[in-house]
Specification:
The structure is a single chain. This protein has eleven helices and six strands. It has 254 residues and is α/β, with parallel strands linked by helices. The chain folds into two domains: 140 residues, no CATH class; 90 residues, no CATH class.
Length: 254
């Protein structure tokens, strides 16, 4: 165990598992995979979508997410929806009458974001710091500013974020939980923080990634699908971990 497998190698990998009598019940997707499946501008969208459809779902392999990956997925869309909404709000055609100071705050952070896009190839999404700076300007105006900010969140975030959560169901992705009676047979032991800390401590990988690998270790599932180098490096450093499947281009750059 403990291999990094390219998309192009998956057919042979799966054949070997089946030849050894391994039952392939499902796989855990990392947050980047889930986001990429649902957000077309992502670099690996087409390759990942096709791989999941043609190589995973066609084999009847179930797709699972964890509480950490769901949180990361929703947080990405929170930032994306707020970015698009706030930029829309300051456009003359929006019909929204924002005070000049609020417009200036949004324009300032939009300029910073635009520079990051132009020079670093970053995604057109505000980071947390930029959103907080805009929100601070609204809240500094007291109850009126807070009410105005809440109205923007109501307009651009509330319904849309629920829709994005429902999108997981459309992708046939199920939340993996040892407390789900229908999934009890998948788990071979209890998930603990201590074991996640051990995985994190190997190479200093992020805790979200460590929790995915830890969840995988606690189940009969054989592999995770990822677009994150942290998972790959963790597996490369520790042969006791299970396998990670990644696009060829990402593996080649490890």
């Amino acid at each position: 165990m403990g291999k990094v497998v390219r998309f192009s190698e998956f057919d042979n990998y799966l054949s070997e598992l089946k030849a050894n009598g391994t039952k392939i019940e499902g796989t855990i997707l990392d947050a980047n995979v889930i986001i990429t499946l649902n957000y077309e501008p992502k670099r690996f969208h087409t390759r990942t979508f096709d791989f999941i459809k043609e190589k995973i779902q066609s084999e009847g392999i179930s797709l699972f997410t964890t509480v950490n990956t769901t949180q990361e997925y929703l947080d990405f869309y929170r930032r994306l929806l707020l970015t698009e909404g706030l930029r829309t709000a300051i456009h003359p055609s929006s019909g929204i009458d924002l005070p000049n100071k609020k417009k200036q705050a949004i324009r300032l952070q939009s300029t910073i974001l635009q520079n990051r896009e132009n020079h670093q190839g970053a995604e057109p999404v505000f980071n947390d710091r930029e959103i907080k700076k805009i929100r601070e300007v609204f809240f500094q105006s007291g109850p009126a500013g807070i009410k105005l900010w809440r109205s923007l969140c109501e307009l651009y975030l509330k319904t849309q974020l629920k829709i994005e959560f429902k999108a997981l169901e459309k992708l046939n992705i199920t939340y993996l939980s040892m407390y789900n009676d229908d999934q009890k047979e998948i788990f071979t032991k209890k998930i603990t923080w201590e074991e996640a800390i051990e995985i994190c401590s190997d190479i200093g990988a992020g805790f979200s990634d460590s929790m995915i690998l830890n969840a995988l270790q606690c189940t009969s599932l054989q592999f995770t699908i990822s677009l994150d180098s942290d998972l790959a490096y963790s597996v490369m450093a520790n042969p006791n971990l299970k396998d990670v499947i990644m696009p060829d281009g990402l593996v080649d750059n490890l």
